[in-house]
Design goal:
heterodimer, A: alpha/beta, 5-stranded parallel sheet, 14 helices
């Protein structure tokens, strides 16, 4: 919709008719209220229309004209989406049903038969012009409101997101991971995605996707909220998780998805599918030996693949209840040797390129339990 | 032959024009109404009609008669309006025999109107 069609100030009428007396009669009836523009054929009529479009209150149109007839003019007007905003009155000697029918199909608002009954015509035309004015004003108001609402909607989304981030921080604190594991995973995810987008454009990783996936990574372990403490925080002294305990631990992936799905309105959000994929598949492995679905290769969503690698690296290099911290060099070796499961070779390529920088940035200076800003 | 001269109002009666109705159509502007009635003899539509009829170009005849219908309707030429309406119907139906009869009548009617208007002083 054109914003420059300001309702209420249309002060011109356009009369397109090749017969002079017809134009004169209409002019005489309306010249006190409007400026009258006249054309004696369709082509001239369209030209006048284009020059005066935003100031037209109505158009009178004859059918039979040389150069371009009334229906031809209507087709052109339709293309410019004019007929919704400017009423077109067909003036015709031919008030037969078929013509009238066709005229309405082409979008005219009313058919004015000849010979004219001027008083009736004046009233019909003025009524319709007023209706169109009201409708155009309403439409303008509506569009203004929509702008306001969508601004508010954006702020609501931001609020929702803050709540989600707060929730994931709570989950994290429960599992007693050192420092800001979630913040680091988010950071590493972003770096790995950027590296991949450069070396392998076929993954279609735009900057906005990278932003969304990094944000979504924050929720990768949200399902851990459903895992009992004694499993989640089982100390190394008690040995590894038993097969039964491990089965329960594995459910944090699918439970995380259930939790996500329970958040009202989240499915309307553009980030939802990334959150879901990451939550569900961040323990899948390139060779299909991961869980919960045993996905293989690039069947694993790339978002989940990247978060998985980031998660593994951070886990290796951090002290956990069930393991000591490994050195940066050792962590990188273990990952490349497949000791923590198989990863996408494309991804590993990027990882190896950037992980030294990542280590310097995130771990060397401020590590040992210090907090990083998300 | 006498040169008959008549007033405009007398011509309106002779032409069987409904004065009040036609004046209303002109939004009460008598000057304008006079102007267009007086101008009718110069209107090219009747010539177009005659030319097309002579060539038996029924499509052009139809268009010209259609336009005449509009003009006669707006100017209040009752007889002409009736004839043009009927003629158009016959042409569209393809009744060219009937059409020819009415075309002849229309020609006479137009000539008569032009003659009367010519007599306005």
């Amino acid at each position: 919709m054109k914003d420059n069609h300001i309702p209420g100030i249309q002060k011109k009428l356009l009369i397109i008719d090749d017969t002079e007396v017809n134009r004169v009669l209409l002019r005489e009836a309306f010249c006190k209220s409007f400026n009258i523009l006249e054309a004696d054929n369709g082509i001239k009529g369209l030209s006048l229309f284009k020059k005066n479009e935003t100031q037209l209150a109505a158009i009178f149109l004859d059918i039979i004209m040389p150069e371009l007839d009334g229906f031809g003019v209507l087709l052109e007007l339709e293309k410019h989406d004019v007929l919704r905003r400017v009423p077109v009155f067909l003036i015709t000697t031919e008030a037969s049903d078929s013509v009238v029918d066709r005229a309405y199909k082409y979008g005219v608002v009313d058919v004015i038969p000849k010979p004219f009954n001027m008083e009736i015509i004046q009233r019909r035309v003025m009524n319709i012009i007023e209706l169109y004015n009201n409708r155009n004003q309403l439409e303008t108001l509506f569009n203004q409101q929509m702008h306001v609402l969508s601004d508010q909607g954006f702020r609501l989304q931001e609020n929702l997101w803050s709540i989600i981030e707060g929730l994931s921080a709570t989950v994290e604190s429960r599992s007693a991971e050192t420092g800001n594991h979630i913040a680091r995973v988010k950071n590493i995810t972003g770096e790995l995605l950027r590296s991949l987008s450069v070396s392998h454009p076929e993954y279609n990783l735009t900057e906005s996707k990278i932003e969304l996936i990094s944000r979504a990574s924050v929720l990768h372990d949200i399902g851990k909220i459903s895992i009992p403490d004694k499993i989640l925080n089982k100390p190394a002294s008690e040995g590894r998780l038993t097969p039964e305990e491990f089965e329960i631990m594995k459910t944090h992936t699918t439970n995380g998805c259930k939790l996500l799905d329970s958040i009202k309105g989240i499915k309307n959000s553009s980030i939802y599918s990334y959150c879901y994929d990451i939550c569900r598949s961040h323990h899948e492995k390139w060779d299909g030996k991961g869980y919960p679905d045993g996905l293989k290769g690039n069947d694993i969503p790339i978002s989940a693949q990247v978060v998985s690698l980031a998660d593994v690296y951070d886990a290796l290099i951090s002290k956990r209840v069930y393991k000591p911290a490994f050195s940066h060099k050792e962590a990188v070796r273990m990952i490349n040797d497949g000791e923590c499961g198989m990863f996408n070779p494309d991804l590993l390529e990027g990882f190896n390129r950037t992980i030294d920088n990542i280590y310097d940035k995130l771990y060397r200076k401020d590590f040992d339990g210090q907090t990083f800003k998300i | 032959m006498y040169h008959i001269s008549m007033t405009f109002d007398q011509a309106l009666i002779a032409l069987n024009i409904n004065r009040e109705e036609t004046l209303r159509r002109f939004s009460g502007n008598m000057e304008l109404m006079k102007h267009f009635i007086l101008q009718f003899p110069q209107d090219k539509t009747f010539d177009q009609f005659q030319k097309a009829y002579k060539e038996e170009n029924w499509k052009d005849v139809e268009n010209a008669v259609h336009t005449l219908k509009g003009i006669s309707g707006n100017l209040g030429f009752t007889a002409m309006y009736g004839l043009t309406t009927t003629l158009v119907t016959h042409i569209r139906a393809g009744d060219y025999e009937e059409a020819k009869k009415f075309a002849a009548e229309l020609t006479d009617c137009c000539k008569n109107v032009i003659k009367i208007i010519g007599q306005i002083s």
